[in-house]
Amino acid sequence: MSKNFIKAIPLTSIDSATFTGDYQAINADGLPNACTLIRFTNDTNVDVTISFDGVNPHDYIRTGDKLELNLQANSQPNGYASSLKQGAVVYVAGAGGAGLLYLAGYYNDKS
């Protein structure tokens, strides 16, 4: 009988001192698993733009804020699981600053 467990991917971060205004990968190797929930924690002194394609802005996080994307919350039809695919690279941009921006993720392990 299959069981469903939530597990965490390794926490990744990027130092805002390296920000140039252009998009940079916060997880250059991509997500190790398809995540049903991801959370950004902006522990920097600059506002940050999030992109899922490295070209277009998709979200925005103000200094000191968190952004949590529960990708499964509104999954339709019921019984389907939405997730950010395994291998997805997330990009961030902002002005150079101080502090770290973190990316946490959680996935459904069916083992």
Poorly predicted runs are: none
Query: Helix segment count?
Result: 0
- What helical percentage do the residues reach? under 10%
Q: What oligomeric state do these chains adopt? A: single chain
Q: How much of the residues is beta strand, in percent?
A: 35-45%
Measured between the Cα atoms of the first and last residue, the distance is: 9 Å
The assigned structural class equals mainly beta
The mean pLDDT is 90
Largest sheet descriptor: 5 strands, antiparallel
- Using only CA atoms, what is the Rg? 15 Å
- The general outline is elongated
How many E-type strands? 9
Order of helices and strands: EEEEEEEEE
List keywords for this structure.
0% helix; single chain; mainly beta; 111 residues
Structure characterization notes:
This protein is 0% helix and 40% strand. β5 (48-51) and β6 form a beta hairpin. Strands 1, 2, 4, 7 and 9 form a five-stranded antiparallel β-sheet that branches. Strands 3-8-5-6 form a four-stranded antiparallel β-sheet, with no helix packed on it. The protein is elongated and about 40 Å long. The chain is built from no helices and nine strands. The chain is mainly β. The protein has strands spanning 5-8, 12-15, 24-25, 37-44, 48-51, 59-61, 66-70, 91-93, 99-109.
